[in-house]
Amino acid sequence: MSINRQVLTLDEFTLQQLRNIPTATGELSRLLRDIGLAAKRINVEVNKAGLVDILGDYGTTNIQGEEVKKLDIYANNQLIGVLKHGISCAGIGSEEMDEIEIFDDEVSNQSKYVCLFDPLDGSSNIDVNVSIGTIFGIYKRVSEIGKPCKMEDFLQPGVKQVAAGYIVYGSSTMLVYATRRGVNGFTLDPQIGEFCLSHPNIQCPSSGKIYSVNHGNFFQYSEGVRKYINNCQNKNKTTGGPYTQRYIGSMVADVHRNLIKGGIFTYPGTIDKPKGKLRLLYECNPFAFIVEVAGGKATNGKERILDIKPTELHQRSPFFVGSSNMMAELEECLLLDNK
Ligand code: P6P
Fold first, then answer.
1. For a pocket test of ligand 1, which of 123, 267, 283 has the largest count of ligand atoms closer than 8 A to its C-beta?
2. Are 294 and 202 within 8 A, CB to CB?
């Protein structure tokens, strides 16, 4: 009986990858499948958010000082629930939790990996039905296997990620993840409830026509950032400007679009907030890893994002990510800031 191999599910794909790496234990494949399961459960609630009283503010504020929507908590709980009862993760760090969650049980302590999550990024858009997303990064532990994981496992530079990815809950629900072997996208088929390989070997176009920035902060940006934004708006023989400005205000949606079509996403520092808004560990690092594997670049305006040695779980970083040629144009403009 011939098995339908036309469309690989996420499970089949990760098992296929496992077969291609003789030394692999299967732990990473299981971990990715666990994240896929949590994503399916989150997707159900996101898709009916407008129908049940799961909207609205949960009444608490997270470490960012932002009011927490109920779906944020739900998404966080789903991820903990699946990973804590899995066999591939020793603990997680999350935007929704002030401290890391160390699973500390006999099986989890034997796990090789820890995960960092933004369980539901862009949650302020939930009430207006704009695409939102889950972001994750996976690290191999540096602490002793067999004992509880430690904060040092989470404060590794992004270059140490063994995998990173996101789920975008949009017109369709997609899971995109990267390992050093490549970036692959899976679209959820609601008929069979499986993520199916729809975007194999994603490459970020080296050039693009889209730039993403919050123009409202324009006069708070540095001279170099303002010069780059002006260049994007002007005819430019070398860069092919003017570009199109697209900014959804939901990073997962903005970066996903630019990854597929080509473009640059920016969240610069400002006079009031020199470190910007985005979190290094579970927003910038995963996307920097994904886009670099796909052929793009990611910096904080001065150095490669993936080289930054974190010091705090929730530290912020200015963030510029996207097509390599557009990033080179940006870096040229940012030289103005070093004078
Ligand atoms: P601003 C959503 O809250 C988020 O963290 C990212 O998803 C998004 O790119 C950014 O903030 C938008 O921030 O300040 O432009 O509204």
1. 267
2. yes
What is the domain count for the chain?
A: 2
Cα separation, 50 vs 286, whole angstroms = 29
Looking at the structure, tell me whether residues 57 and 193 fall in a common domain.
yes
Q: Which atom of ligand 1 is nearest to the CA of 118?
A: 5
Please give the residue range of the domain that contains residue 216. 210-334
Question: Quick one: 190 and 323 in the same domain?
Answer: no
Last residue of a domain, one of 157, 176, 199: 199
Q: 152 with 223, same domain? A: no
Among protein residues, the one whose CA lies closest to atom 3 of ligand 1 = 122
223 and 275 assigned to the same domain: yes
Nearest CA to ligand 1 atom 16: 249
CA distance 123 to 131: 9
Are 15 and 159 within one domain? yes
Query: What is the per-residue DSSP string for 110-163?
Result: G-SEEEEEEEEETGGGGGGT--EEEEEEEEE--SPTTS---HHHHSS-GGGEEE
For the CA of 253, the closest atom of ligand 1 is 7
Contact indicator for 130, 254 with CB cutoff of 8 Å: no
Nearest residue by C-alpha to atom 4 in ligand 1 = 122
Q: Tell me which residue has its CA closest to atom 2 in ligand 1.
A: 122
Which residues sit with their C-beta closer than 6 Å to ligand 1?
Answer: 121-122, 124, 214, 249-251, 254, 277
Same domain, 130 and 225: no
Residues 59 and 118 in one domain: yes
What does the pLDDT profile of the chain (339 residues) look like in tens digits? 555 556 899 999 998 888 888 888 889 999 999 999 999 999 998 887 666 555 555 666 666 766 666 888 999 999 999 999 999 999 999 999 999 999 999 999 999 999 999 999 998 888 888 999 999 999 999 999 999 999 999 999 999 999 999 999 999 999 999 999 999 999 999 999 999 999 999 999 999 999 999 999 999 999 999 999 999 998 776 666 799 999 999 999 999 999 999 999 999 999 999 999 999 999 999 999 999 999 999 999 999 999 999 999 999 999 999 999 999 999 999 999 987
Of 199, 219, 235, the last residue of a domain is: 199
Do the domain assignments include residue 339?
no
